[in-house]
């Protein structure tokens, strides 16, 4: 069994910016240990809640599964009927759940850095995992991406990773380019030039997708988030045109090196970012990413539980 | 304790058409065994999800209860906030949940035979129970009806069973007439003549409700599904007129044989299909049907778990 | 550990009017015992459902947490997709869940005394806890208020308790004034005079909030329920004006006796009933009330389980 050298313990897990390279690797290794069957013992029955003020079944379900696999009880929370609709602040909602007995929670919200007010509130002492903040970060997605790459290559040093697509609106892009740099990988970018700007220059170089196909170890496609684009921008692309110009086509797949892998945070717009028949090809790690997401979230929630003194270490 | 001779094991349970008479009886007997207290041991913690894209609290809750009674963890899934709303196919949603660790699921959807695409997808290998497909089938309802009749009479041979009401729109009617024939019962039909057509001739004879009341062992009333009828059709009936012409009235109840029973898939429109005061009369098995539904669904989900190698048989 | 002298056992817990002073105290002491770590053993796996036809995450979550802490399995119920939308009566929904195997439930509904039809239905035999009925009662809120006061003062005799705010629309006000009288406390009222009427005269005296601040042991503020007021009434107040005239301000807090406490059923409209910075001051018991809510609801659900013969007493 793969073991981390010392147990991870965090008050909150909010941003990849807070994590040094060795901390990222500690999360990856802890997640691998969970994948290999590691279990933790709780010191008492413990309770999780998932506050998803922005929809995301996939991330929500993955956190819930992680919590259940850690032996937590998951308390149902439906934002649609919550007191937030009576004008209650998120901090008061969190404190109410804390008072009721919730020990750890995952939160997703459409406001960037929604968590600042929560962690600065001295009456909040439960552990919070950021499940995505607006156009900000999505640390559990970054960690599962890193885990999937590490599982494949065993190292980040010198690895060539392309991030392709809607860079300007993607939480995943920004978190991953920083983390990959920290870990020693080389980052490249692809996709529509108008979605690439000088914020990205410090992290990597833009290249045409054909060239990326030739040279990369990892082709990481981003979802074209229709809902984040205004209609006038959007009508520049049809699905077929986007796929032909910036997406993965059978021709580009044929140009990829044999060991190279395809990633995507999902859900994939089949036929847009990736040709339908390639989504589950042998080089695709897309469903493996989802599977790894559960183990990464186990590592995150376990680190919060450990900080709360709820893990019995022996 | 009632035991089945060999353990049921199915990749999926989708349609009554797939089941021979002895298989139906094996499900009924397994359900009776669960009702009598039978328990199964899982080889590891296992996870169920219920994807109800069409509303049905009753069936949904019954599946959930069955899953919990089998010792499964039930992962929350809310179709209203799922990625299906981002254009994801049902197959991709199912594969995402599978990747996350779901082992078995019940699905209800408004599209007939929605499951064909799922079972033909070679990347889907979890077990699926059909919780109802459009105007197609509703196998767990059929099995609970068979269980309830078998509990009452101990045999199907020569039993006279009437199916009364909205035959043309009812999943229950079509599944049950076939299964009852297979099992050796005689099927009769009642209700508005316009809802009876030559598709039903091969399975049984239409009769006036008064005559059915005189002769039947089982009076199975179907829900008048207002939502499936267009307004012009609908206005032909008032509740009182439907009950007087086609429903169970005290006068018809008085004509029924003493041993005859009343069934209904529920929810009953009280005063329409069945007079209010008769819904829970001594001859009614309506709430017993609901109770049996849990045990039948335990048998179904256990058969999927067994196929997945998740049941420890000793 | 604090122990009740004899185990509480009730068919249903619906109204504070049904409870004598010693029964209220028995619930308070049982709740304190649960808070101190008391656990119950169930005679078999038992199932709870929470039917919240009117939104209230806080009460809903608190009941769910209580049920989980008692070792119950909580069956998901979403009224938005239930058969109630197909015209099913609440009694039939309850009987369906009972048939499926639910042993105890908490119900909230917007109709006053919705529960009368349920408890008069001889086919309903599961245990029901009232989670709030329209403008009627909210017994678990009253009991948690009593528990919080008793924890603080150890006695009700001669205690001066003010209930301040929207008396005419508040379930909490009416239940609490009666119970506090029964328990020997003196009740006073405050807030807009137009919300005070002669129904309240028998229970206590109205005073200006400044005078209440000087004299009370407990200052219990009620939520200004915007949604229950018509717009024309509502526009008489701005938040600032309400706070200045009837709410807790720093000046009024300064007038309070050192031992006096602040209560509120939550969610607080910060800056309306209570100045933002006072919601979590040292004298506030608002979040302690929420914490106590779980233990009170454990006592309630345990009393229902005991009546059902589901608690193993030794």
Would you mind describing this structure in some detail?
Three copies of one chain form a homotrimer. Chain A has 314 residues and is α/β, with parallel strands linked by helices. Chain A has two domains: 12-137 and 291-307, Aspartate/ornithine carbamoyltransferase (Rossmann fold, 3-Layer(aba) Sandwich); 139-286, Aspartate/ornithine carbamoyltransferase (Rossmann fold), CATH 3.40.50. In chain A, 38% of the residues lie in helices and 14% in strands. Chain A contains eleven helices and ten strands. Chain A has helices at residues 21-35, 57-69, 90-100, 115-119, 139-153, 171-183, 209-215, 231-234, 239-246, 250-255, 286-307; strands at residues 12-13, 47-52, 73-75, 104-109, 127-133, 160-164, 186-190, 204-206, 218-221, 261-263. In chain A, β6 (160-164), α6 and β7 (186-190) form a beta-alpha-beta unit. In chain A, α1 (21-35) packs across α5, α2 packs across α11 (286-307) and α5 (139-153) packs across α11 (286-307). The longest helix of chain A has 22 residues, at 286-307. The two termini of chain A are 16 Å apart. The mean pLDDT of chain A is 92. Chains in contact: A-B, A-C, B-C. The interface between B and C is medium-sized, with 27 and 27 residues. Chains A, B, C: Its EC number is 2.1.3.2. Chains A, B, C: Keywords: Pyrimidine biosynthesis, Transferase. Chains A, B, C: It comes from Secundilactobacillus pentosiphilus. Chains A, B, C: Residues 158-303 form the Aspartate/ornithine carbamoyltransferase Asp/Orn-binding domain. Chains A, B, C: It catalyses: carbamoyl phosphate + L-aspartate = N-carbamoyl-L-aspartate + phosphate + H(+).
């Amino acid at each position: 069994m793969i073991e981390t050298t010392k147990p991870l313990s965090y008050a909150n897990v909010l941003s990849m910016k807070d994590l040094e390279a060795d901390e990222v690797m500690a999360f990856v290794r802890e997640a691998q240990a969970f994948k290999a069957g590691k279990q933790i013992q709780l010191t008492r029955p413990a309770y999780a809640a998932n506050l998803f003020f922005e929809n995301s079944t996939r991330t929500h379900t993955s956190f819930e599964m992680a919590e259940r696999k850690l032996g937590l009880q998951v308390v149902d929370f439906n934002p649609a009927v919550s007191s937030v609709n009576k004008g209650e602040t998120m901090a008061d909602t969190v404190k109410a759940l804390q008072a009721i007995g919730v020990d750890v929670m995952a939160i997703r919200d459409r406001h960037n850095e929604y968590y600042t007010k929560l962690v600065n509130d001295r009456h909040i002492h439960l552990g919070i995992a950021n499940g995505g903040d607006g156009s900000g970060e999505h640390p559990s997605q970054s960690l599962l991406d890193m885990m999937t790459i590490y599982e494949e290559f065993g190292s980040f040093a010198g690895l060539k990773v392309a991030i392709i697509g809607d860079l300007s609106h993607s939480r995943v892009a920004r978190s991953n380019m920083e983390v990959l740099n920290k870990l020693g990988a080389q980052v490249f970018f692809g996709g529509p030039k108008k979605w690439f700007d000088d914020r990205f220059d410090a992290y990597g170089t833009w290249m045409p997708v054909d060239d990326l196909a030739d040279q990369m170890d990892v082709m990481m496609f981003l979802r074209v988030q229709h809902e984040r684009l205004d209609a006038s921008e959007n009508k520049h692309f049809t699905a077929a045109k986007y796929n032909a110009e910036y997406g993965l086509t059978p021709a580009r797949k044929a140009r990829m090196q044999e060991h190279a892998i395809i990633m995507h945070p999902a859900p994939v717009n089949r036929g847009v970012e990736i040709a339908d028949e390639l989504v589950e090809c042998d080089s695709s790690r897309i469903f493996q990413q989802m599977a790894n997401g559960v183990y990464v979230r186990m590592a995150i929630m376990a680190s919060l539980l450990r900080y709360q003194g709820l893990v019995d270490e022996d």
